[in-house]
Amino acid sequence: MEDKLSHIVAHKNKVIATLIIRPTLVYAVLLCVRYIMTAVVLWLGLSVLQWHFPSYGLLLGYMKAVVVLPLTVMLYRFAYWRLVRYEISADQIKYKRGVFNLREDYLELYRVKDFEKHQPIVLRLFGMMNFTVLTSDKSHPVLVLRGIPDSNLPDIIRDLVQLSRVKNRVLEVD
Predict the structure, then answer these.
(1) Which residues contact 125 (CB under 8 A, 6 or more apart)?
(2) Distance (Å, rounded) from C-alpha 111 to C-alpha 139?
(3) What is the pLDDT of residues 107-125, one digit of tens each?
(4) Which uninterrupted H or E stretch holds 135?
(5) Which pTM does this prediction carry?
(6) CA 174, CA 170: separation in Å to the nearest integer?
């Protein structure tokens, strides 16, 4: 990922490309683990009840259909995180998401006040990070890029924010 990110750096106040970042497949799978575990526990619990109370076997057999609910939620969340997309250009960060209802949010880079890189132990083990962007934007003061590959994104964002502020003649006042 670092090779992809290094060539977006500005050259003579012009950005070479738009950077597209997606949460990793591993991140989407890690978020689905709790739904899988819930389905397994429900299935095992209902199987034990069916074994101990065979007269209620048919009713408990139908109740096993409840296992479909966490699996459906898991599939939706997996699809959601696989469809999340962050596009970083010279002027803005575009945040696209949604499975059935697509939504796009735009964040102007000159509004960025600060940013943070978070790497909890699980993300660090898989070479991922969460990247938080703090802004002066009224509708989205905080944007979190979750589960993205670990990279030199903070340096790139810093350079792009400075270029955007110069280009738009914005002076930060606290």
Answers:
(1) none
(2) 12
(3) 999 999 999 999 999 999 9
(4) strand 128-135
(5) 0.79
(6) 13
Q: In the numeric block, which tokens belong to residue 116?
A: 């943070």
In angstroms, how far is CA 34 from the centroid of its own chain? 17
Check if the beta carbon of residue 29 is closer than 8 Å to that of residue 126: no
Quote the pLDDT of residue 156: 92
Q: Token pair of 50, please? A: 């069916």
User: What is the rounded (10 degree) CA torsion for 91, 93, 98, 101?
Assistant: -30
Q: Extract long-range pairs of 62-70: CB within 8 Å, 24+ residues apart.
A: 66/42, 67/39, 67/42, 67/43, 70/35, 70/36, 70/38, 70/39, 70/42
Residues 84 and 22: beta-carbon distance below 8 Å: yes
pLDDT at 140: 84
Helical (H) or strand (E) element with 112: strand 112-118
Closest CA to 145 of 89, 98, 88, 103: 88
Domain layout of the chain by residue ranges: 2-20+109-167, 34-76
